[in-house]
Amino acid sequence: MIPKLLVFLFVTGVSTILAANVCKIGNIVHRSGNSQPYYFPNNWNENQTAPGLGRDQSCSWVFTVPHGYYAKLIISGKTGDNYSHFQTVDAAGNVVQTQHENKEPYYFPFPKFTLIVDNEAPATFGFKVIWAPFPNVQLQQGGVNIKPYRINITNSQQIIEFIAVTGVSVLAFPGDLKNYHALKSALLFDGNDMNAPFVNK
Ligand SMILES: *[C@@H]1O[C@H](CO)[C@@H](O)[C@H](O)[C@H]1NC(C)=O
Ligand SMILES: *[C@@H]1O[C@H](CO)[C@@H](O)[C@H](O)[C@H]1NC(C)=O
Ligand SMILES: *[C@@H]1O[C@H](CO)[C@@H](O)[C@H](O)[C@H]1NC(C)=O
Fold first, then answer.
1. Which terminus of the chain, N or C, has less C-beta within 10 A?
2. Residue 66 domain boundaries
């Protein structure tokens, strides 16, 4: 009886170590025809705790985003040291580096974004990407003024066009008002709608 138990414990221990995921550089991911989400690791989902990532990983994913669509990324994970990081690069070259992610959303427009993880110590890391057509929301117009133009996006997506010499369009997604992280849930386009060149966030 006792030897069997020891063997069982040993096997369990090994499989826990093996469960830490590995990944590779240069993944290229397109939206699937049936709009299924893309998960890493593929047996993980957002209702589970962040999965383990093995030490010394250096990985990248380029996600293409079709015209008229946006991609939404959520990451769950934490680095195990201060040298490691998660990084996103959007189509305008804006880089965001973090060491702790708790499924707060990032939004990316056409044509692509890149996700990178570089870690030394073992970490936790899982993510999900979905693609969706731009929401069909009413265009609101606002002038550029000394008074701030405020709209409430607590419950719904909004697109506002600010009229200046040329228009700037802001697509804002609902966010948590108590969390400044929500500020990044807005996409800015240099023109009259979301087909204009993407600028910044
Ligand atoms: C996660 O949980 C939510 C709320 O219970 C549920 O709607 C959703 O389908 C779950 N997602 C997955 C991938 O299981
Ligand atoms: C990261 O740096 C902070 C501040 O210097 C320190 O308190 C923390 O212990 C460091 N974390 C790790 C995992 O080394
Ligand atoms: C924004 O809308 C939400 C939901 O309708 C509401 O609870 C909140 O008070 C509104 N905030 C402001 C500043 O109007």
1. N
2. 2-133
